[in-house]
Each structure stands twice: as structure tokens, then as C-alpha cells.
Amino acid sequence: MELIDLIWEGSGLYQMSWRQLVMIAVGCLLLYLGIVRKFEPLLLVTIGFGGVLSNIPGVEIATGDGLLHLVYVVGIETGAFPLIIFMGVGAMTDFGPLLANPKTLLLGAAAQFGIFATVLGAVGLTELGWMDFTIQQAAAIGIIGGADGPTAIYVAGQLAPELLGAIAVAAYSYMAMVPMIQPPIMRALTTEAERAIKMEQLRQVSKSERILFPLLLLLLVALLLPSAAPLLGMFCFGNLMKECGVVERLADTTQNALINIVTIFLGLAVGTKLQGEQFLTVNTIGILLLGVVAFAIGTASGVLMAKLMNRLSSQPINPLIGAAGVSAVPMAARVANKVGLEANRQNFLLMHAMAPNVAGVIGSAIAAGVLWSQLAN
Question: What is the pLDDT of residues 357-367, one digit of tens each?
């Protein structure tokens, strides 16, 4: 009987707290969303599994010298994993639509208003005593509004690592729910006639333009805002490898093997931060609510800016493409195209929407750089 008692007391069931049990259920929910509903499966499956594994009592893979803890320290505390993923995203990005219609940069910039509005909202809720966020935590929460998972993880890992799990889950969950969140906002802010607007065909972009743009973008942003250079630099480097045409092997590795390997470890490492003591708090509810508000404000800001540009421009601009200013690439552009087709079956907006979509990636990196430069110390 003593042996049986020792075995029972050493089991995970005996040591498990209610918080760990709840977080295992949360991890299983993320696995369900990723596997069954196919919501951002590349991240939700790995984050969910990491959350389940790290909440099993007695499992030391996520603590001390455990593998996943070491992965977290090396890959996320240093910011390495988000930067490598940004390089892979750059290698998969086509700047052509943006170069063909440069004014859509304004749409990507407008959509970042959700980030700064949410930062102010988080600070305001803290002042009212409803939440308890520092200014660094508020900045990390606000980045959710950019709908850019790697940027959200990068900023949270540097400014508010204690909130990393909740911020990562919110960011990727809302990115996955773009087809549900954005259309009602887009329809509410536009008329049927505006949604049916057909845009002119984009011009052809030369190879020289494609090669020079990432270099000029990096130099311009780095000279004006050095703190944004790490994210944007890796993004531009990945794109340059793709466009220059002389390092196909490197570009292919970056787009496929490298980004896939890093995504596995990034997700598992983020999952280790789904600890009950940190996740099951009032602040987590606040993060989830502020995240969806940030996303909604970013979408609305992009649509309203596109409406204004349509009024002022000599060429027609469909306001729906403004919703793609959030950097959920390419899902937000696909949603804009889908809603446009509902109003006009001959209205193909995908390539037009890709321009503000790519601009949103640039905008979210710059917004992260602004917040980092002001709050890192």
C-alpha cells in the first residue's frame, strides 16, 4: 500500500491543480481550432500542444533546463524566431501590387491606428482601475491590432513576456477569424455602390523596381527609425533574395524549410507560456477583449481611409481594399475580394487588396519600432 501511495503521490493526477486542468482544456481547444476548424493551424496546433505539455505536473520540458524552456530563451527572449519568420514572410511577399499603386501605403498606415488606439484604451482602463497594465504591457497588447503574429510575439517577448501566451493566442486567433470579423465592419461602413466599384488594372512592375524597393525601404526606415530595422530588415532581406534571382536555393530554403522549422519551435515555446497562474487572470480577459477591439478599429480605419481616397482620387478606389491594411497576409486581401464579388460578380479586387495588405506588414513593423524605441527602457 505504501508503494501504491508513493506512485499515486508522484503521479500527475495527484499533483494537478484546477488551473493546470483548465489550461490543458484550453490547449485542447486550440488543437481543435487548428485541426478541425483549420484556424491558423501552423501556429495553433503547435501552441496548443505546447500548452498541454507544459501544464502536465512533473513535466520539466518547459522549465529549468528543459528543451522548450531553452528554446524559449534562445528563440523568443532574444527575438530570433520572430525575426527569422519575418525573413521567410519577406521571401514569400510580392511587392508588385504596392509598387504599381504606391498610394495604397496610406491604407496600410491607416489600419495601424488600431494599435495606438488600443494602447490608449489599455492605459485608460488601468487608470479607471478596471485593469492593471503597465505602459509596456499596453503597447504589447496594442500590437494585436496589426494582425501580425510574429510582430506581436516579438514585441510581447521584449516588453511584456509575462503576457506572451495570452497575446499570442489572441493575435493568431483573431487572424484566423478574419473572415468572420471583417465582413460585418466592411459592410457597415460602405454602401452597395461603393462595394461594387471596379478598379483599373495595375501596371506591370519592372524587375529593377522589385530589386531596388526592399533596399530603399530598409534604408529609409532604418535611418529614420532604427528600432524598426530588425523586423523590417529581415523582411526586406527575404524579399531581396526572392526578387534578385541569383540565390534561388537560399530563397527556397527561407520560404519553406527554415520558416517551417522555426514555426514548430516558436509555437511550442509560446505554448509554454500558457501557464494557469499567468493566463487565468482578469488581465487575460482584458487582453482578449482589447485585441478584438484593436482588430476592429484597424479594419474600420483602413476602410474609412479608402473611402476618403476614393472621394479625392481621380481614379476609382474600392473602399473594401482598405480593410486589407491589417497585415493578415493574404487572408485579409481574400476577404476584401470575396465581399467585392458579392456586390459585383465582375469585380476582382485580390491584387488591388494585396497592395495595402503588404503595406500593413510594413506599417505594423514600423509601429512596433515606434513603441519599442519609446518604451524599451
Answer: 999 999 999 99
